[in-house]
Design goal:
This protein has helices spanning 11-15, 24-35, 88-101, 137-140, 157-168, 191-201, 219-224, 236-241, 253-262, and strands spanning 6-9, 40-43, 63-66, 71-74, 79-83, 106-111, 114-117, 147-151, 173-178, 181-185, 209-213, 227-230, 244-245. By secondary structure, the protein is α/β, with parallel strands linked by helices. It folds into two domains: 6-83 and 189-262, HAD superfamily/HAD-like (Rossmann fold, 3-Layer(aba) Sandwich), CATH 3.40.50; 88-185, Hypothetical Protein, Haloacid Dehalogenase-like Hydrolase, Chain: A, domain 2 (2-Layer Sandwich), CATH 3.30.1240. Helix 7 links the parallel strand 11 and strand 12 (227-230). Pfam families: Hydrolase_3.
Length: 264
């Protein structure tokens, strides 16, 4: 098997340890590959506003995928290279379907400029910044949304996900990464679709890509890549999709595989 030409990796639960840090070992592996000219592309659900701490790790290729494929970001130029968003008209129809079929749901949108929320939206783990535009979605959804966030902490998590899929799955791309939260992108927009676009621009084939992930939103990326690894802590759907297993994220699983595959 030939040596991969590009590495694609999720962040939370994959490249990052559970405390959100990047280990010395993992940082060294990423830097070694960049020195060899092998791009390491971060492919994450995180919004653009949560990425500043990680940009120094992105090498000369300067590209990253955020918001589950909603944005391809040019790190070197510090600009949005591609926005695959949900426009306000389509988004309000989507929100109407969710509000109608998912009792107690609250909705926020991630835009290029930051998050905007309906009045009921509450994320205790990640409070929205002061001054965040808040109000009825018809008032705050005035620009394309890179990603839509739907929360409900009262419903049983699987029932909540099923309800959102039933309400919105025919209108958009629905996925999830944690209980109580469902994430929605424009139709056909996934981590996988964004990675396909980046690889096309770099003349890299799927067979030359090695990818790592841990949650269902990683499945399209892992299904496309020629070599795919589910983390030791991965969701069963990811394990079923990936071709191989890596150690857990807290064991520096991505670094361990990269060291072996690339002889670092």
């Amino acid at each position: 098997m030939s040596t991969p030409r590009l590495v694609a990796t999720d962040l939370d639960g994959t490249l990052l340890r559970s405390d959100g840090t990047v280990s010395v070992r993992t940082r060294a592996a990423v830097e070694a590959l960049e020195e060899r000219g092998v791009p390491v592309v971060f492919v994450t659900a995180r919004p653009l506003r949560w990425m500043d701490d990680f940009w120094p790790m992105v090498g000369d290729h300067g590209l990253a995928v955020v918001s589950n494929g909603g944005i391809v970001f040019d790190v070197a130029g510090h600009r949005v290279r591609e926005l695959h968003g949900i426009d306000p008209a389509d988004g309000l129809l989507l929100a109407e379907a969710i509000y109608r079929h998912v009792p107690g749901a609250s909705i926020a949108i991630e835009t290029v400029d930051g998050i905007r929320c309906d009045p009921a939206y509450d994320d205790a783990a990640h409070p929205v910044p002061a001054g965040t535009p808040t109000g009825p979605l018809e008032d705050v959804w005035t620009d394309p949304a890179a990603k839509v966030l739907v929360r409900n902490d009262a419903m049983e998590p699987a029932a909540f996900r099923d309800a959102v899929f039933a309400a919105a799955g025919h209108l958009a791309e629905v996925t999830w990464t944690m209980d109580g939260l469902v994430e929605i992108n424009a139709p056909g927009v996934t981590k996988g679709s964004a990675l396909v676009g980046i690889c096309g621009s770099l003349d890299v084939l799927a067979a030359d890509v090695i990818a790592f992930g841990d949650m269902p939103n990683d499945v399209p990326m892992l299904a496309w890549a020629g070599r795919s690894y589910a983390m030791g802590n991965a969701h069963p759907d990811v394990v079923a999709t990936a071709g191989d297993r890596a150690p857990r994220n807290d064991e520096d699983g991505v670094a361990a595989v990269l060291e072996r595959v690339f002889g670092l």
